Amino acid sequence: MNSTGGELLVLSQQPSSWKSHGLQKFSCSFQNSVEFPQKGDINTSANPSASEDDLQITEGTILGDHHVVEAFLGEGGFGLVTRCRDTKNNKTVAIKVNKSDPEILLQAKLEIFILEQLRRLDPDRCNIVEWNDYFLDGQRICLNFELLDQSLWDYIGDRNNRGLPMRELRPILHQLANALFHLGSVGIVHADLKPGNIMVLNHSESPVKVKLIDFGLSCPASAVIPGDRVGTIGYCAPEVMLGIPYDEAIDMWSLGLVAVELATGVPLYPGEDDYDVLKFIIETQDYRSKETRYIKLKQMLALDANLRITPSEVLKHPFFHPGCRTLAPPGPLTTTSRQRVKCLAPGHNDRDCRRRGSIWQPSNYRMNCELLSHD
Q1: Dist. CA 208–CA 338, nearest whole Å
Q2: Which residues of 282-307 are buried (b: 16+ CB within 10 A; e: fewer)?
Q3: CATH number of this structure's domain 18-146
Q4: Pairing between β-strand 188-189 and β-strand 150-151 as defined by DSSP bridges
Q5: Could you report the per-residue pLDDT of 178-220, keeping only the tens digit for each?
Q6: Can you tell me which family this protein belongs to (predicted)?
Q7: Is residue 310 pLDDT above 60, yes or no?
C-alpha cells in the first residue's frame, strides 16, 4: 500500500540503463523506502489503446476518486499537469497525469522511486517541490504535488526577457545551488535543470523563493550509464551530448546556463540540435569576453566535469556575500562557422580539427571563461 492506502505500483518491466543496471543496486540502500511487488494493479497489456492515450481530460473531470480538474498548467510528452481541488480536504494541488503508454508508465514508476528517496529531505529547506503522493486514474499514474505559482521561464518572460537585476538573481542562484547540494546528499542527479523546471512560489514576493521540480529524468548518481541521454537541448552538458561518462556535475553545467539566462533574459547556447549547441559552446570557450564574464560562478561551465564547481562551493562563493558588486550587462554573442564543429564528426581527417576536437576529452581542456566572477 502507498502512504494513503492506495495501490502499490509494480515495476513489472526491467528498465533500461540505470533502470536495469543501477536500480537494483541503488535500491538496496533504500529497500524499506518503496516496495514494488511482483504482481500488481498496473497492467498495460490489458489496455490495447494505452499507447495512444490522448488524455481526454477537461475542466470538471474527476481524477482518481476525489481530485477535480480546475485548470491546465502544462503539458509534455508524458501527459498533462493540472490544477485540481481535492474534495476530501478542499486543498488545491498540482496533479501530473502520466499517459498510459507503457514506456511512460515505466518512467512514472521510476520517478516515484526517486521521489521516495527525496522524502528524506525537507522540501522547503531544500528548495525542492513537495510531493504528496500518487494515485491511479484508470491505467494512468497521477502524481500529487504542492501547487506553486509559475515557472522561472514564465517569470523571465513577464519581464520581457530583459534579465533579472543582481539583487534578484543572487538569491535565486543560491536557492538552486542549495537544492542541488541536498540532491547530492541523497545521491540523486536531477538531469534536466532548466528554467521550465524551476518554480517560483510567489512572484509578488521579493526576493522570490524557488523550488526545483520534475524528477522524471532523475537518476541515482551511482547508477548513471554513459550514453544514456538525459536533459533538454540547450541545457545539457557536453559529456551528455557526446555520450561519455557523466555524473552529478551535469546539473552544475545546467545551473551555469540558467544563471546566464536569468541575467541576460536569453539562453546562452541556443540551437535546435546538439550540433548547433556544440557550435555555440566551442565559440564561447575561445575568448574571455564580457559575454562570459558576467555574473560568474567559478568553473560552473568548465568543460572538464572534474573541474566543475560543486554545490557546496557555490554556496560558499563570495558572489553570495553582502556587498558583492554587480557588473554591467553583457552584449550579444557573436557567431562563428559550423566548420569548427565539423571536426567532431567521426572519421574526419583534418589534423587541426582532430586537435580541436580533443577538447571534448574532459581531462584535456579547461574552460577559459567562468561565470559569476568578480574582479
Answers
A1: 39
A2: bbbbeeeeebbbbbbbbbbbbbbbee
A3: 1.10.510.10
A4: unpaired
A5: 999 999 999 999 999 999 999 999 999 988 999 999 999 999 9
A6: Belongs to the protein kinase superfamily.
A7: yes
> Which CATH fold topology does 150-364 show?
Transferase(Phosphotransferase); domain 1 (1.10.510)
126 close to 212: Cβ distance less than 8 angstroms: no
**Which residues are catalytically annotated?**
192
Give the Cα separation of 233 and 273 in Å (integer).
6
Peptide bond into 207 cis (omega under 30): yes
Model confidence at 20, in pLDDT bands (50, 70, 90)? Answer: low
Q: Is the pLDDT of residue 143 over 90?
A: yes
Neighbouring CB atoms inside 10 A of 28's CB total 8
Closest by CA to 301, choosing from 369, 231, 226, is 369
Burial of 52 (0-12, 13-18, 19+ CB in 10 A): exposed
Q: Domain boundaries in the chain?
A: 18-146, 150-364
CA dist., res. 105 & res. 51, Å (int): 10
Half-sphere exposure of 363 (CA within 13 A, CB side): 2
CB-count burial class (<10 Å; 0-12, 13-18, 19+) for 356: middle
Grid-cell match 498510459, residue found = 100
Q: For residue 13, is pLDDT > 70?
A: no
**Rounded CA gap, 226 and 190, in Å?**
16
Instruction: Compute the radius of gyration of the chain from its Cα atoms.
Output: 22
Classified as helix, coil or strand, 168 is helix
Rounded CA-CA distance 155/206 in Å is 13
* Number of C-beta neighbours around residue 47 at 10 A: 16
- Which residues are annotated as part of the binding site for ATP? 96
